[in-house]
Structures are given as structure tokens and as C-alpha cells.
Amino acid sequence: MAEPIIRFSGVTKSFGDNSVYEGLDLEIHRGETLTIIGGSGVGKSVCLKMLIGLMVPDAGTIHAFGQSVTELGDQGLISLRSRIAMLFQGAALFDSMSVEDNIKYPLIEHNWGTPGEMNKRVSEVLEMVDMPGIQKLKPAELSGGMRKRVGLARSIAIKPEVILYDEPTTGLDPVNVRRINGLILSLQERLGVTSIVVTHDMDTVFTITDRLALVYEKRIAFAGTPDEARNHDLMYLREFIQGGRGTLDIDF
Ligand SMILES: Nc1ncnc2c1ncn2[C@@H]1O[C@H](COP(=O)(O)OP(=O)(O)OP(=O)(O)O)[C@@H](O)[C@H]1O
Ligand SMILES: [Mg+2]
Q1: Is 171 in the pocket of ligand 1 (CB under 6 A)?
Q2: Does the C-beta of 41 come closer than 6 Å to ligand 1?
Q3: Candidate CATH numbers 3.40.50.2300, 3.60.110.10, 3.40.50.300, 3.40.50.1220; the one for domain 4-242
Q4: What spacing in Å lies between the alpha carbon of 81 and ligand 1's midpoint?
Q5: Is pLDDT at 84 greater than 90 in this prediction?
Q6: Cβ(43) to ligand 1 under 6 A?
Q7: pTM score, two decimals?
């Protein structure tokens, strides 16, 4: 298999007395779709945030594209985030801004080009998420599914190589779940992007996944294909995937 483009090695992370990771190891390869599963509050979002330098590990290393993320300065982090985009849990749109201005935000931050070029890019990405022509709407005028798709349009606007999706389908109806999953797949197929998807939804896992990783007991307890997961001897893993939403996940 090719060299991983992202590698976590021996990462530890605590918040005060709350130890979240005690030795997180994970590799991600170019072009794959990896889903991250695990109970509520185990550290899935923290894992993504550490990858783009929004949170700093206490120890261990995180490499992306051959660079050590923890050693990047402000400019290095901006450049990293143009290659690795994150769709935050809840989409996190700016409510006071139009759809167009929301999508332009990262374009401006990354010096995309002239106003004309930015307008063209906004149109392109809205088409990619099947919502052409909604530039002037405000987030409050959109349904939950539409907001997620605008969030996705914003994430892909700067043509990232890797997209991190934090629970992209949570709270959506089945039609919108399928639509978002279809978009994740088509971005991978059409643009060759690498995707890391945090999800509680097993349909999503089995529809889009090349490999899945389970966060359990403060580390990645399993990483492998769905078939390997089904046959693995870690009972929690089998229960998690068979129980749909994780039968032991009492916090859910
Ligand atoms: N900024 C923060 N300050 C303090 N503690 C935090 C912070 N962010 C996360 N935590 C703690 O780290 C742990 C992991 O949080 P995280 O948000 O990564 O969980 P998660 O697996 O994404 O959960 P969920 O499925 O509910 O989104 C939790 O105990 C949480 O309280
Ligand atoms: Mg989370």
C-alpha cells in the first residue's frame, strides 16, 4: 500500500483530569474513505481537530503530507487547512451572512483570486452539492439538510485534498442522509479526495467506507475493512456495528 498521507503516532491528549487519548495510532492513505466510529464523548471530534491544529496533543506526533502538524506556525497551519478542510459537526455556517458570503469566506482567507473568479467558484460548488442559484439565501432560510450541503460546498470550495466530515448526516432524514453519502462518494470518485468521516450511522459506514476505525479505550482499538470488522474478536466492535448505533453506547 502507498505511504500514508496522514499518520498519528502515540498521541496522548487530556483536558485537565479527563484523559481522552493514551496512545492514538492511525494512518490514512491517499484516496481512501475512512470512517471513525465510537461512543459519544470518546474523542472523535478531538482527533479531527488535532489533525488540523485546532487542538494540540500533549505528546506523540501527527504528520500530514510529510510535515509535523504540531511544529507548523500560523502560515503553515493556514496552508495545511487549504489542503485538509473540515466540515464541522452542525455545519457551523455564519447566520448573518448569505450562502454566497459563507462560501467565499475560505476563498478570501486563502487568496483565491478576483471577485469574478470567486463568484464562479461559488456557483460551481453549489452545483456540485445540487443547490445551484441559492447564493443570496441566508442560513436561517435553509433546512438542516441544505445547511449541511452548504457547509460541504464551503469545505470543498478551496479544492482540498482531504475532507474531514464530523457527523455529516446526524439529525437528517433518510433522503438527506443518502444525498450526503452520495456527495461524499462522488467527491471521492470524481475528484479523488481523501475523506475521513466521523459518524454514528452504520448505514453511512457501510455505504461509503473503505476502512473504518473504532475509538475505544483511549486509542484506535481497530482499523480495517468492514469485513474485517464484522469478523473481529473485539466484542465491542461487533456489537457496535451490529447494534446499528452501538448497543453499549448508553450515552447516545
Ligand atoms: N475544548 C475542550 N475543553 C475541554 N474538554 C473537551 C474539549 N473538547 C472536548 N473535550 C472533551 O474531550 C472528550 C472527547 O470529546 P469529543 O468532542 O472529541 O467527543 P466525540 O467522540 O466527538 O463525541 P460526540 O459523538 O458526542 O460528538 C469529551 O470528554 C469532551 O468533554
Ligand atoms: Mg464529536
Answers
A1: no
A2: yes
A3: 3.40.50.300
A4: 21
A5: yes
A6: yes
A7: 0.90
